[in-house]
Amino acid sequence: MLLIEDLQKSYGQHEVLKGVALKVEKGEILGFVGGNGAGKTTTLNCITGLVEQDYGKVMINTVPKSQSLAYKKQFYFIPDTIHVFPNIAAYDWIHFVLGLYEKTDDAKLQSFIHIFGMEKSINKPMGTFSYGMLHKMALITAFTISPPILIMDEPLNGLDPLAVVAFKNCLKEYVENGGTVLFSTHLLDVAEKICRSICFLKDGKIILHEYLENLLVDGSLETIFMEKQANEG
């Protein structure tokens, strides 16, 4: 379970997060939705430790963010922009990351390399990869590690149709095995098909957090999102 309490973050005089509070239960796929500048990426960066919040608490499975190493082993994060060492082969890099999580299942890794169609590219330097190939590499790493929580910022960016289908299937299996997912997206139709629950963020505040089965009684996710954006001050 991911628990966030009263998360606040400012850059100079600009207040980005204004008391974000959120609970993501085990086995949940939560879509984090908001317009540009709403604070989605800042929230994810605070959760993952890339940015320190000014105020508030973050815990994963009762492990507080202050317990840095134990906390970071509770999740794997895929950012929107993936920075790599360009001369290192993807396979070597993945093995290095797996070692940090004390994971050594090479058969599982090979399975995900095949699922995402990366057999011919996995031993090439990451500097030769396209944006979409970097995201495939990150997804292969994430699903091989299979941590308690996957946190992703726009995970479908750059993926071809076959990779999108593979992602959805792997995500379903991961959750069925007890995993939890928090991901930000601009694609409301994707969120509607994949997520169990949805969270709307506007101007650094959560304006809606609800299970989709309750929410979609009143219309499509796109319609509800536009109404909430227009009505919330």
| Mean pLDDT rating | 92
Number of helices: 9
Radius of gyration: 18 Å
Level-1 CATH class name: Alpha Beta
What is the string of helix and strand elements?
Answer: EEEHEEHEHHHEHEHEEHH
Q: Tell me about the largest β-sheet.
A: 6 strands, mixed
Percent strand equals 25-35%
- State the CATH topology: Rossmann fold
Distance N terminus to C terminus? Answer: 30 Å
Runs in which pLDDT lies below 50 for 5 or more consecutive residues are none
Instruction: Please estimate the helix content.
Output: 25-40%
Strand count: 10
> How many structural domains?
1
Q: Which structural class best describes the helix and strand composition?
A: alpha/beta
CATH architectural arrangement: 3-Layer(aba) Sandwich
Characterization of the model:
The protein is α/β, with parallel strands linked by helices and 233 residues long. It has a single domain, classed as P-loop containing nucleotide triphosphate hydrolases (Rossmann fold, 3-Layer(aba) Sandwich), CATH 3.40.50. Helices cover 38% and strands 27% of the residues. It has nine helices and ten strands. The chain has helices spanning 40-48, 68-72, 90-100, 106-115, 131-145, 161-176, 188-194, 212-215, 221-231; strands at residues 2-11, 14-24, 29-34, 55-60, 63-64, 75-78, 149-153, 180-184, 197-202, 205-211. It has a six-stranded mixed beta sheet, sandwiched between helices. A four-stranded antiparallel beta sheet has the order 2-1-4-5. A hairpin with a 2-residue loop joins β9 (197-202) and β10. The longest helix is centred in the C-terminal third of the chain and has 16 residues, at 161-176. It is globular. The model has no long low-confidence stretch (mean pLDDT 92).
